[in-house]
Fold this protein.
Amino acid sequence: MDPKRIFMASAMAFAITFGTILCNEEANAGTAVVPHDKAGAQGKTKPTDPQVQQVEENDPLHYALGVSSEEELYDALYKGHSLADIAHHNDKEIQGVIELQVSELTEQLDKRLLNGSITPSTYQAQIAELNDIVTKSVFGYT
C-alpha cells in the first residue's frame, strides 16, 4: 500500500477516535447512539456500571468496539491489537466498526466538499476508496 494512503487512513482513524474528546457537549448530543436494547436482543447483558454506560452513550466507537474507556482502547492498540481484534475479543460485530468509521468519514468529506476545501472530483475519488481504506485500517492491514 502507498505510504500516502497509510498516512491518510491513520489520520482519519485518529480523527474519528479522538475527535469526540475535543467536541463540546452540544456536538456530542447529536451523535448517533446504538441502543443498548440491540445488545440485549443478542443475549448479551447491558453494562451495569453507570460510568461504562456513559462512555458508550457518548462515544459510538467505544460502544462498537465494546470497550469501556479511552484508556482501554489505547492500551489494546498499544499492544498491537487491531480494531477488528478488539471488537472480536468483546463479541462485537466488526462490520459495525467499519460502517461507523465510513459514516463519520463520509460526513467529514461532505462538510469539506460543502465548504469548498476539496473539489467534487477529489470528493468522488476519496469516497470511492473510503470503504476499502477503512476496512484495511480496522483489520490492521497496510
Q: What stands out?
A: The first helix runs from residue 3 to 22.
